[in-house]
Amino acid sequence: MVEAITPMERDFTQWYTDIVKKAELMDYTSVRGCMVIEPYGWAIWENIRNFLDARFKELGHENVSMPLFIPESLLNKEKDHIKGFAPEVAWVTMGGGEKLPERLCVRPTSETLFCEHYARVIHSYRDLPKLYNQWCSVVRWEKTTRPFLRSVEFHWQEGHTMHETAEEAVAETERMLKVYADFCENQLAMPVIKGRKTESEKFAGAEATYTIEAMMYDGKALQAGTSHYFGDGFAKAFDVTFQGRDNSLRHPFQTSWGMSTRIIGGIIMTHGDDDGLVLPPAVAPVQVVVVPVAQHKPGVLEKANEVAARLRKRFRVKLDDSDQTPGWKFAQYEMKGVPLRLEIGPKDIAKDQCVLVRRTDRQKIFTPLGGLEDAVAEQLETVRRQMYGRALERRESMTYEARTLEEMKELADAKPGLVKAMWCGDPACEAKIKEAAGLSSRCIPFEQEHLSDTCACCGRPADQMVYWGKAY
Prior knowledge:
The chain is an alpha+beta fold. The protein has 14 helices and 23 strands.
């Protein structure tokens, strides 16, 4: 157990490690890059999963489960796809003490499995669209790992859909990116930039990759969710066909989209402070902690239990009636990021009130017990607004404009954050910016700004503004 939390400004990397350990979000294992997600961390993921799962189902998606293993011959059917994943693939070569006739890949993603299945079940335009989603874990043999942010095994959801027309598939790709963006901004209080990845940064095998990019406290970018349009490339490779409305044989158009447990790392690094986690109310395992003050006095525990029981009908509530001091409890639940603390003691009971304390600013609000539920809801929404406002203000104050490569290098060296600069579209310029300034292209935002007429790298005409940055 970490004894203390390293200040963010002293060592942000160590601060992050201290947080995930001290808040009991995860534990290390004997397998490099694989972690135990402890109950508190898993509860955050469950709340994320439950919200997204309900939203997917509202939009007509169904959950399925695909195999853990992919035969090498199946993975090789789409050449760009396997080329992109080859360095990260884990292979199984033995089974039951015998060498397997064909290597099995431990799934890094499941496009090939879905396509194999779709080839069997799609026959007519009447079978479309197929709107499937899977909740699972996948394996990518990362060289450098960090809890939640980059691990060998991680949990995620991966949506895989097939459509009759390209227009429908593109609309699905864009629709699901909006679902992710709305979730990040409205539930996680995390501002994001929506845009398209460049050709060199897009998903292996995709025609287009769309992304939401968030900025962490230290100015680095985090790819928070992606949505991919595959066209009919996978369908052709896997011979997925259907009889069209004109009786001709056609290939369907495919999408995939995903969000993983790395979003928990994003929550930590967007909102946390030197005292610990700051959790958005929508996904906090405990939204309200009830702390009895002077609980040894008559009637205090009874009233605290009564208040907690009332609030549990609408919120996720914990009553801490342990023998720890109130001061210890205050610090403990601030460290664990509980959005709202409710204090109640003899003086409060005499006045038929309690005290609500927000995690974001520790302001005390003396609140009548009558109508308490609505008051708690109001304070939780205030917490969410404060969190979003702070994160947005930080991102805006750490986003800069550059018109030349030299300016980009100076900003990259002196000021952590994002850099907006025009780009001509040439991958050579993109590569040069990455080599010279250490900045990768994060996305071509949907909301464009015309900063100048020329590319910041080469000076040729440019009509695309790109966000550049260092990223996790």
